Amino acid sequence: MIDKKKRFLIIGLGLLGGSYAMGLKKRGHIVSAIDINEASINYALEKGIIDEGAATADPNLISQADVIISGLYPKTIVGWISENQQYFKKNALITDVTGVKCSIIYKIQELLREDCEFIGSHPMAGKEVSGVQFADPSIFLPANLIITPTSKNTQAAIDFLYEFGIELRFNNICILTPEKHDEMIGYLSQLTHVIAVSLMNANDNSHLKEYTGDSFRDLTRIAKINENLWTELFLMNKDVLVNEITAFVDEINDFKQKLMAEDVDGMKQKFIQSTKRRKYFDK
After folding, report:
1. Where does the Prephenate/arogenate dehydrogenase domain start and stop, copy by copy (predicted)?
2. What is the domain extent for residue 252?
């Protein structure tokens, strides 16, 4: 169990940052937050989601934190740590919620003070909405937490994040290298968003809503997407994502050829294989 005396600071009080804050507060932890949107800070204070907050990088809040969790966009996090690490408490632990790892972790660990430690993590949770007003720690209950240590991380930091995941009731906690994380996320998350976006853009019929069934709704749920965040994520994992798109297009073309050739057995084998693989998710 995490020591209740540890003070948490959330940087960027969006959906994930807010859900972390709410979950930690419910379990008796002291939580502060910094967000450039003062309305978000005021909302979180009024609802009891945080104990303290500021709309600027308040040195006092930063220096009190034992654990700093960045909910910033990936392009922003490195600069924020570089500019504000002078205020970090000795032995502070820093982590994040970012959906890409290789392009940020090594930069942060290279520039970070030696008496502090950064270890990457990624909650595989979310909604198709953003903002602290939608914060809900129950989104972690069915979700995976991925911890992405490097050779520069201590076992104590890995153990802490594991306990953190248990504290917030994540369904599963796993450990991957930053490289393996980006490879897996390229397929499991980024490619699926590309597919959903492409489905919504492939047909401009304004009456689709009147005809659609559950299959189209389910497949395109994640097409409601933050264009600024996901553009950053895609570009920072470009090589992996391009390879996954290529493999997916090859699979689509293979199915197309079987359909054109009326290859009944070939199509059935595709269905049998996909059904078998999807059943693993139902266990």
Report:
1. 6-283
2. 181-282
> Which tokens is 105 given?
């972790």
Helix boundaries (H) for the chain? 15-26, 38-46, 59-64, 74-84, 102-111, 155-167, 178-185, 192-201, 208-211, 214-219, 227-236, 238-260, 264-278
Is pLDDT above 90 for 3? no
Q: What is the SS3 assignment for 258? A: helix
- Between helices 227-236 and 238-260, what is the axis angle to 10°? 90
Asked if residue 142 and residue 33 are part of one domain, the reply reads yes
Q: Are residues 76 and 126 in the same domain?
A: yes
Give the gyration radius of the chain's Cα atoms: 21
pTM, entire model: 0.92
Q: What is the distance of C-alpha 72 from the center of its chain?
A: 11
Over residues 126-150, mean pLDDT: 92
Higher pLDDT, 131 or 89: 89
- At residue 145, φ and ψ (nearest 5 deg) are -110, 120
Q: Which residue has the tokens 């922003």?
A: 76
Q: CATH number of the domain that 153 lies in?
A: 3.40.50.720
